[in-house]
């Protein structure tokens, strides 16, 4: 089958070539991929940023989101059948949606929302699950609380804004000058143009911050939280608790303790909590997101689509950091 893959970390930008079709285990669903979206995670994996946590082998087919049609199922699969339209985020150990076919454990898939197309569906799983696991599962965001979401025009931000408003929160976010009105239309109550204002000088008394940016924004975010508030980062640094959840070696646990020591200490001093979320695949949570899509509460946000042959260009476009919402690769 054709797939887009890398053969080493670092400077290898990837190429399209032939690779063996995936093996289908007892609980696996073989999906004919119609569309797959590009995430910043793909760029980080390509650079080798997760090689200590996720020891992939080469050639490594990239891709962490998909929408497509079930071609066949393993003997133990009960939830899906050939011909079903599905979408999902494959478990992190078995990525590879930039390909004609992918085998995914049935627990990571859900039936595609009937009200949207393949490209829109492919744009949702990773970012929607991230928003769900930060705001619903971890922060337990409640009606009337105040949440600050960094980078509101990005993939995660654009969905997190919609979900937070559905939960009844007051939502503040940041974006560039050109996107202010666009982000307000997603439902944000307060939009800060980061080219004109510093968010830490404007905001105060927030219950939750969803951070997707670097260390500078992370540490500044502590200042806007009220005592008992929660700073949740999806871009690191990872915590000792994360190392335990992933069952990593004591050496990696020590490394993560050191990496997050400063922000955890500053958080304790301010009486707030710091946590790191590394999104996990979940078909059950996707079913809940499907219900929100079907009722019009969450809508996918697409910036551009690229044909499969232009996958390298799609990755380069996302790497520039200027996309509004998601970038999708179409395979069929």
Topology:
Elements: E1 2-6, E2 15-18, E3 28-38, H1 40-47, E4 60-61, E5 66-73, E6 85-88, E7 101-105, E8 109-111, H2 118-122, H3 125-138, E9 146-149, H4 155-166, E10 170-175, H5 180-186, E11 190-193, H6 199-202, E12 206-211, H7 215-221, E13 225-233, H8 240-245, H9 250-270, E14 273-276, H10 283-294, E15 302-307, H11 311-319, E16 326-330
Parallel strand pairs: 9-10, 9-12, 10-11, 12-13, 13-14, 15-16
Antiparallel strand pairs: 1-2, 1-4, 3-5, 3-7, 3-16, 5-6, 6-8
Helix pairs in contact: 3-4
Domain Enoyl reductase (ER): 14-329
Pfam families: ADH_N (PF08240), ADH_zinc_N_2 (PF13602)
Protein name: NADPH:quinone oxidoreductase
Could you explain how this protein is built, in words?
The structure is a single chain. The protein is an alpha/beta fold and 332 residues long. The chain folds into 2 domains: 2-123 and 300-330, Quinone Oxidoreductase, Chain A, domain 1, CATH 3.90.180.10; 126-276, NAD(P)-binding Rossmann-like Domain (Rossmann fold), CATH 3.40.50. Helix content is 32%, strand content 26%. It is built from 11 helices and 16 strands. It has helices at 40-47, 118-122, 125-138, 155-166, 180-186, 199-202, 215-221, 240-245, 250-270, 283-294, 311-319, and strands at 2-6, 15-18, 28-38, 60-61, 66-73, 85-88, 101-105, 109-111, 146-149, 170-175, 190-193, 206-211, 225-233, 273-276, 302-307, 326-330. The strands form 3 sheets. Strands 3, 5, 6, 7, 8, 15 and 16 form a 7-stranded mixed sheet that branches. Strands 11-10-9-12-13-14 form a 6-stranded parallel sheet, sandwiched between helices. β12, α7 (215-221) and β13 form a beta-alpha-beta unit. α3 (125-138) crosses α4. It is globular, with a radius of gyration of 19 Å. It starts with a strand and ends with a strand.
């Amino acid at each position: 089958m054709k797939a887009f893959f890398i053969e080493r970390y670092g400077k290898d930008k990837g190429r399209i070539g032939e690779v063996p079709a995936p093996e289908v285990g007892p609980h696996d669903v073989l999906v004919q991929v119609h569309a797959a979206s590009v995430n910043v995670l793909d760029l980080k994996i390509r650079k080798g940023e997760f090689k200590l946590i996720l020891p992939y082998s080469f050639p490594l087919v990239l891709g962490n989101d998909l929408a497509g049609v079930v071609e066949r199922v393993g003997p133990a699969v009960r939830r899906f059948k050939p011909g079903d339209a599905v979408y999902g985020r494959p478990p992190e150990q078995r990525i590879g949606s930039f390909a004609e076919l992918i085998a995914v454990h049935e627990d990571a898939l859900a039936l595609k929302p009937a009200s949207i197309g393949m490209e829109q569906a492919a744009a949702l799983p990773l970012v929607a699950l991230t928003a769900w696991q930060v705001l619903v599962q971890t922060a337990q965001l409640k009606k009337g609380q105040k949440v600050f979401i960094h980078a509101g025009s990005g993939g995660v931000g654009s969905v997190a804004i919609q979900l937070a408003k559905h939960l009844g929160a007051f939502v503040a976010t940041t974006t560039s000058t050109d996107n202010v009105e666009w982000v307000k239309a997603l439902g944000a109550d307060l939009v800060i143009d980061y080219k004109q204002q510093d968010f830490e000088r404007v905001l105060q008394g927030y219950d939750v911050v969803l951070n997707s940016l670097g260390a500078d924004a992370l540490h500044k975010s502590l200042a806007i939280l009220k005592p008992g508030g929660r700073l949740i980062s999806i871009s690191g640094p990872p915590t000792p608790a994360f190392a335990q959840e992933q069952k990593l070696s004591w050496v990696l646990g020590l490394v993560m303790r050191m990496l997050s020591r400063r922000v955890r200490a500053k958080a304790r001093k301010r009486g707030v909590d710091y946590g790191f979320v590394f999104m996990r695949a979940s078909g059950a949570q996707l079913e809940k997101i499907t219900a929100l899509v079907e009722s019009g509460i969450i809508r996918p946000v697409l910036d551009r689509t690229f044909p499969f042959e232009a996958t390298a260009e799609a990755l380069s476009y996302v790497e520039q950091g200027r996309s509004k919402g998601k970038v999708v690769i179409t395979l069929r």
